[in-house]
Amino acid sequence: MRLYEYEGKGIFKKGGIPVPWGSVVESAEEARRVASEIGKEVAIKAQILTGRRGKAGGIQFAKIPDEAANVAQGIFGMELEGYKVNSLLIEEKLDITNELYMGITIDAENGVPVAMVSAEGGMEIEEVAKRNPEKIVSMLVNPLYGMRTYEAINLVRQIGLEGRALTSASRILSQLYNVFVANDARITEINPLVRTNEGKMFAADSRCEIDDNSLFKYPELKDLRIQRIGNPWERKGVEGGVNYVDMEGNIAVMANGAGLTMSLLDMIKTDGGSPVCFLDTGGGLSEERMRNAVSLLLKKTKTDQCIKVILVMVRMMISPPDAVAQGILEAIEEVKVKTPVVVVMRGRAPYEKRARELLGNSAVSLCSSVEEGIGKAIEIAKA
Amino acid sequence: MAIFVDKHTNVLVQGITGKFGALQTELMLNCGTKIVAGVTPGKGGQTQFNIPVYDSVQEAVNKHRVDASVIYVPAPFVQEAAFEAMDAEIKFMVIITDWVPLHSEMKIKAYSKCRDTRYIGPNTPGIMVPGQTNLGMISPSAVRPGVVAVVSRSGTLTDEVSAHLSEQGIGQSVVIGLGGDPIIGSRMIDILKLLKKDEQTKGIVIVGEIGGTMEEEAAEYIKAEFDKPVIAFVAGRTAPRGKVMGHAGAIIMGERGTAESKINALELAGVTIAKSLWEIPLLAKKVV
Fold first, then answer.
1. Which of B125, B182, B251 has the CB atom closest to A129's CB atom?
2. pTM to 2 decimals?
3. Between chains, do B239 and A125 touch, taking CB under 8 Å as contact?
4. Which residues of A254-281 are buried (b: 16+ CB within 10 A; e: fewer)?
5. pLDDT tens-digit readout, B150-167
6. Which CATH number applies to A1-20+95-228: 3.30.470.20, 3.40.640.10, 3.40.50.920, 3.20.20.190?
């Protein structure tokens, strides 16, 4: 789950990392009030979950509170990279001498955290990575011991910092690592980490993502994560415990397992068909999750006339055939749309036999192989 | 032994009395898996399908020879369960559980290196040697004994690929699900290194998918020193592009991780690419 800049700065601050003085607002009037409290030039930053807001006009400055209110009004009306702006972060504007980069994420290949720093932070950091990879130095961290102070110092030294800058930056790096661990993050990133005229360092931006598998430890975030999903169908999917994604075409595809679902999309495309959306139910299906999933797709067909057919594939390793079949039939009964449903149910031999008993003479067309199911769905979609 | 396990492997089940663990234990027993003990704290002294249940792994290994542990405990407890097994000197684990926190996965991986323990998962359907043993949930009707190893990142797709091979008369030396998570115990390259030396295995089917760099890493190894025929199926060629994980994610991944990157790397390594499930057995027949 990705956090907003102000939320990330909140956990940075708790972890001891210096952040600019400011607060988050939801109206132009509040922006004026915060700007006058700060009492100097302010930065006004759109709070949206994309990194490219700066170039799109989502970050502006104002010298006096009235100007801050006007600028805020303007940004509230914007749509940036497809996101509507609902909140702004108003912060003191810093006198910056240079911008650094600092990030902690997971190196999956080695299965450990990796810390990265660069003296060339800012918007072009990915370009730096491509053109001058030697300007970004990195270090793997042992997750059993955490980051040692001397390790942080040694890494930061490599980008040429010395004296007070070296100790400040390495302390922030250690703190950033602690924030990464304490919040079960997949990434904690400061870009840019700025140095002011007075030689102080501040996290001028934050990028934090919390591991979704750890959200059981943060119930308040778990609810927020669902509320923040913009696409209503995706949101309904997550509420029902499944993963829904929109595409463009006329065949709705559903399967249990990400690999299986993606492979169906590929094969449909290869054979000349066109998936309109897909839904991965995950493994170990219950009747309820199956019913929710099929009913979501059937409801989608009511609002989207493009959908000609629904292809459902369940590989029954542990998902019992009765739950799967009943879930499908109940959803069809509940939603009452005439969209044809093609079903492929394969797996343990007794399960396949039972699936035939349950669905052989029902409203769905039951196919015995993946190839047949895909062929049938494409045929219906083209008719 | 093909790799990791065979019919002589004595298996411990952690979480044997849970709803999921119990169901799975019964299915494994039906496949001939030699389950010698189970562990559920607080349930010591009971039995499950006539298998003795202990409060701790140490107690179980004191009473039985245990070669491998299959872990079914709920995600929040997986790290403790895995550390417990490793501390009890169990040298191979299968972590079936899904939704394990990433920071737990990192710690399990780091500790496994200290303890010299190998494992597959988390979030894996397990490992099956057809006709011998099954540590996990791969369907017995999907497999038959043979000479092709199936090495997959997926769950249900692993089962489906094996079924496609079996239906065309191509048996498997081993079917192994690596696990669908970013941090797993054994990566594709680790398994290939073992399969290289395995006499039973004459050819390999790799089932990859978009994301991560495992296929690229495996391709480099195949190109440099793997001499058995390899067929690959990469899922996600037409999937919408996922969101990159910040600058840090982009810096680490570079251009890797896409289906094109994986397919190109594998083709350069001499691997034959299957475009559909039904093409896999046809290609496999040509090489083994």
1. B251
2. 0.94
3. no
4. bbbbbbbbbbbbbbbbeeebbbbbbbbb
5. 999 999 999 999 999 999
6. 3.30.470.20
